[in-house]
Design a protein that fits this description.
alpha/beta, Double Stranded RNA Binding Domain, 3 helices
């Protein structure tokens, strides 16, 4: 019985040692310095030439939600251990997939975000980078009819890209 308890204690000790190695790990693959406790994410203003009025708030809130739900970091207003700020620099739609009669079969909505990331514990992880993603939609549909769905889909991809670049070290 004592031998069995010793094995169990050894197993959990080894597991704890392995998981505490080089940072905080989550099941999402995030690798965050163990001393990092907070994240601050500033409002991303929409400075694109074509402005969708709700895009800034929707994007900023979704980015905050990603960091809060996928890490153990606490969201603070400013001066977080990890910091994200930036702006929406592009929001455009253009025709693609031109058919034989010179009409577009598809249109493409593209959103571009410029992001500055600061890791106060490891400045080699800092970056300033543009991210852009797009979704195509049938030209038979009006942008206003599909815009909400497209923005949601594009935001999810952009946020995943930003999150991966900031805190996932594969």
């Amino acid at each position: 019985m004592i031998r069995k308890i010793s094995k169990i204690i050894f197993f959990f000790s080894a597991l704890t040692f392995l998981l505490s190695g080089c940072g905080i790990y989550s099941f999402t693959g995030a690798s965050i310095p163990p001393e990092a406790k907070t994240v601050s994410i500033k409002y991303f203003p929409n400075n694109a030439s074509l402005v969708e009025p709700t895009l800034s708030q929707i994007f900023t809130d979704a980015l905050k939600d990603k960091f809060v739900s996928q890490t153990t970091l606490i969201l603070v207003q400013k001066n977080g251990d990890l910091r994200l700020e930036g702006e929406i620099t592009g929001y455009s739609t253009k025709p693609i997939a031109i058919t034989g009669d010179q009409t577009a079969a598809l249109n493409r909505l593209t959103i571009t975000i410029k992001v500055k990331y600061v890791n106060t514990f490891d400045e080699t992880k800092n970056f300033e980078s543009p991210f852009n993603r797009y979704e195509d939609y049938p030209s038979s549909k009006n942008l206003s009819d599909v815009q909400e769905t497209l923005i949601t889909q594009i935001n999810e991809m952009l946020i995943e890209d930003i999150f991966n670049k900031a805190v996932v070290n594969w």
